[in-house]
Amino acid sequence: MYLTKIMFVISAFALSTALEAQDAPPAIHQQSSSVPGARYEIVQSELAARWTFRLDRFTGRVAQLVATKDSSTAWEDMLVIGRPQIATPTRARFQIFTSGLAARHTFLIDVDTGRTWLVVSSKEKDKDGVEQEYTVWQPFEGR
Predict the structure, then answer these.
(1) In the 8-state DSSP scheme, what is residue 78?
(2) Strands, E, within 12-128: which ranges?
(3) Which residues make beta-bridge pairs with 110?
(4) pLDDT digits (tens, 9 = 90+) for 57-100
(5) b vs e for 20-49, b when ≥16 Cβ sit within 10 Å of the residue's Cβ?
(6) In whole angstroms, what is the distance from residue 40 CA to residue 110 CA?
(7) Is the CB of residue 13 less than 8 Å from the CB of residue 21?
(8) Backbone angles phi, psi at 123, to 5 degrees
(9) Band of the pLDDT at 15, cuts 50, 70, 90?
(10) If you ran DSSP here, which 8-state letter would residue 8 be given?
(11) Distance between CA 134 and CA 80 in Å, rounded?
(12) What is the pLDDT of residue 90?
């Protein structure tokens, strides 16, 4: 009888430990914490490396990591439609949020005004008829 009680306690402990481990969020190793007051930050979606951005937190300028024609990588400036021009930026004012659920839930926010932009991709044919994909930050009109 005593042995049965001990086995029950050990089993209950093992089960509770396993359940706690399942609730723990997975460790995220692809990012570091921003340095307070830092001007630049790199943000990458957990979904795909193509959604890697360099943000100027003072001005709201965003660049996307792209592959070049010679197979190297580079930062390509992105259009942020209606981004305010800040004459003399002195502090961090912009932030990027990217969801782990879908790339379409990637936002740029002006933390002073609350104005928000959503990253969107579109395809168009150029003058030679070749389809080109481009990505821009479009004002988010959600209330």
Answers:
(1) -
(2) 40-44, 52-56, 62-67, 73-77, 94-98, 106-110, 116-125
(3) 94
(4) 999 999 999 988 898 999 999 999 999 998 899 999 999 998 77
(5) eeeeeeeeeeeeeeeeeeeeebbbbbeeee
(6) 15
(7) no
(8) -120, 140
(9) low
(10) H
(11) 12
(12) 93
